[in-house]
Amino acid sequence: MRAAAPRTRPRTEWRTELCTDEREFGRLAEEWGRLYRHCGTATPFQSHAWLHSWWLSYGTPGRLRLVLVRDGGDLVAAAPLMLVRQPWPALVPLGGAISDFGDVLIEDGERADRAAAALADGLAAAARTALIDFREVRPGGAVERVYASWRGPRRQVPDSLCLELPAVPMDDLIGRLATAKAQQRVRAKLRKLSTLGVERRTVRPDEVDTALRRLLELHRLQWQGRKVTSEHLQDRFAEHLIRSVGPMVRAGDAVVTEFLVDGTVVAVDLTLLSDRLAGGYLYGAHPQLRERKADVATMLLHACAQHTAAGGAAGGRRVLSLLRGNEPYKHHWRPQPVVNQRFLLARRRTSPLMSAAVCDVAARSRGKKLLDRFLDWRERGGGRP
């Protein structure tokens, strides 16, 4: 009997598209979502709900640049970008300063290398006279494949510092603390929360909008009279958050948690989720919690740690991310420092723009070091008479 011929994958047509229409961006939700689910390095900041909502709140008409790669009818790679003019012409990731990670999407598997190469070619064509500037790329991000395929001038420089903990239960996080005394203090804080009657509930998808409005009200209240990220108080930020998080909760990319005392909501937390990480993004807490000696940071970490125990591609997430920022309270938990990367891609004619960007990075780095030295000197008493 003659053996059957092996089945081969039908030949398909690869093509690269440039989308500049925000209405078309909205219609990409389903296939963007499929690609997002098949890109293991994706973070919630690359989900369609987050990016499309961000564009509606922050985008500039006429500046949208989505580079899409298709294999036949399949979307296998996407770079969500926009054109900026200052300080020089550049294509930068959607999501802006309110997103902790930027990246592209590339389907995992046998098509990944070809998709990355096609995306690199599509980016080169879309850039024209602009620099391509991928900021805040988490180590291991999909942009690294594009960078490896890039055929023009390129540079990689450090970006923001993030702090990460292992995805383990709260008891194991407590066990990481440096001393037995420090461990005892945290357990005492957890007992205090229990004594106060703090209860925790996960918000249902149909309750998300109301819970987020309450989160923003509590956030404004907790920072009243203190220095706060001003963008978090803007109407456009509230509109973006409320518009994006509902679909993300339904898709499993976010969870909203309320904390109650005697049936009254005293705090609300928003944690973003992907296959690899859980990260507490924003919270609001009533000042009464601190007045009653409740440790809000421990309360939030305890809740966030639970979200790393389930979900993810392998039945559990690998990282509890404290996201960007080097705040002292984060170091209490002995986190691992992880530096986001910045990838600059240029064509031959735009290489001077890349050189300008690299010089700007170096100048800002030197300025920050000088400021840190001055602040350290002043704290040690150097600025006192």
Q: Percent of residues in beta strands?
A: 25-35%
How far from one another are the termini? 99 Å
Count of helix runs = 13
Shape: globular
Number of extended strands: 13
Order of helices and strands: EHHHEEEEHEHEHHEHHEEEHHEHEH
Largest sheet data: 13 strands, mixed
Short synopsis of the structure:
By secondary structure, the protein is an alpha+beta fold. The protein has helices at 22-27, 29-37, 48-58, 112-127, 143-149, 170-175, 180-195, 208-222, 235-251, 287-291, 296-307, 328-331, 351-379, and strands at residues 14-19, 64-71, 74-84, 90-93, 105-106, 131-137, 154-166, 199-202, 254-261, 264-273, 277-285, 319-324, 336-345.
Describe this structure in words.
This protein has 385 residues and is α+β, with helices and mostly antiparallel strands. The chain contains 13 helices and 13 strands. It has helices at residues 22-27, 29-37, 48-58, 112-127, 143-149, 170-175, 180-195, 208-222, 235-251, 287-291, 296-307, 328-331, 351-379; strands spanning 14-19, 64-71, 74-84, 90-93, 105-106, 131-137, 154-166, 199-202, 254-261, 264-273, 277-285, 319-324, 336-345. A hairpin with a 5-residue loop joins strand 3 (74-84) and strand 4 (90-93). It is globular, with a radius of gyration of 23 Å.
